[in-house]
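User:
Can I borrow your eye for a moment on a structure tokenisation matter? Would you put together a sequence-and-structure record for a protein of your own picking? Please set it down just below, with no commentary around it:
AI:
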Amino acid sequence: MKISIKPNFNALSCLLFSLLISTLLLSLYSSMALASTAVNTDATPPVQTFDLMMVGGGLVTCSSLSRQNCVLGSQFTADAKQTSVYRLTQSALERAFKHPSLSGLTAPQKAILLHASQQQGNAGSSLSYQAFYDAISAVEKDFLTDLNDQVYYALLDLLEDEQAITSGINRQEHVMLSATQNQYGAQIFSLFTQQALLKKQQRQPQAKRPLIAVVTASARDPFESIDFYTQVFEQAGADVIWLPLDSALQAAIAQQQCDQLPVLREKIQGNVDRARLYPVATALQQSMCVSPDSLYQQLLNIDGLFLNGGDQRLTLSAWLTPQKKPSKALDIIKKRLQQHQIVIGGTSAGTAVMTAQYMVTGGTSHGALTYGVLAAEAPSERCEESHCQSDIPATAVTYSTTGGLGFFPFGVTDTHFSQRERQVRLFMLSALSENKLGFGVDENTALLVDLRNHKVSVVGEHGVWVVEQSHVTQTPLSYSGVMHYLTAGDNAKVDVVTQSLNHIQLLSADKTINKQVDVKREFNAWVDKACVDGQNDIDLGQAKLIIKPQSQQECDQIKRNGQHYQNINIQLNLVNH
């Protein structure tokens, strides 16, 4: 399909044309997913109800870009995208050098890139990222790491190959949900789809398939994962649309600068030259910018909204005006959430951004001990591996005092939790927040939230770490609180008055379905030892961590080879602060 948008229409013709394009492209995206590996195409609503699904990231899914997640023997068609490909050729570089985003490259820098292309010869026409990186590093070792973010990402975007199959049609990532080895991720996607159907059946009792919208604004390149999410939810049993809402679109609508969308994408979202790779998706974004009412109507029609992973700051700016006020789109979604008409899900950054409390934006537990917890802008994610210039250390924990989107009112949220040992960073940040509660969700795991009844429950492969009653004293600097770890099948209620969990129900250890796949990280081992010895004092160098069960009864589940626990005291005493 070739789309040509002429600039000289009168206002009425332009509006009608935009609505036509919007309708056409929305229809295309709602049916673009592969149907060959459908999972539960007529979803059956679950017994439990929830309003939020907060996933900790790392949803293991079989796709052509993640074949390691597929069962042995899984086959994709020849047109499936298997990796991103880059062109390190003289012609590709000459085209890239003409783009304004690379105007800052010096003549010696351009010479290095041209020399690298000459070294590659014909092989430079199709390179994986690693081969691309190695080819340039062979000429100048630190060339790419020394580039600032703007130039580095612009170079990648401008040299990325379209991987065209035919004119106007490029390779797409293909998903096979039912062929995923580890089925926890597929079950989480299916559960979200079922809950969206339940929401729809409140209005249409005979409905068989919900309408789910995916918003990929968390990514620097929000177009890259469209195929993945639309296919995942199509195969889980939903009709799916991709909404092109990101920080660039939000700014263009607010400032009435739809003709400047490519410039705003580069300036705010951080990507360039996307229309070359994603002509249909960028045309859809352009049409919705001209006619934002079509976007708002879709938000009124959908039964589920899913937010992707990436950078929660980008997600937040997609839903706020340039003045940092709630946009019309956010107002619509919040009203529907309050009326329990929609289920909202997110993974990684899509979970972190849901909080109404402080929103974590970066850093590690070690960084929290070394530099503290800072209300500051996070440095680039490349700072840990490149020579970036920032006043904030790469591992320092940073957060936003104004919070996130406000969907989740009960506490601070964190993700990739046990896998990245984030207990200390969440503990220290939650102690500073207003309600003193923190929820850390493990990978391939989800926290389900029933807002009406203040109920939380866990599904998936691992668990959710909760710290409550957390507070800080200044002299000497010390943090204290009570922690719980809930795994699949466990549930509890949030007491908003005492800012704690109550009515905690742990699935008995002999029925815990995921105990054989637990990730035994260092923190888990410390808790195990505390349960054996009655208390465990851990020297962290910059601090002493004290873990002490309130009674041995609290450790019974761990002793019976379960993973979950409740009511274990935690204290962190910092030295030299």
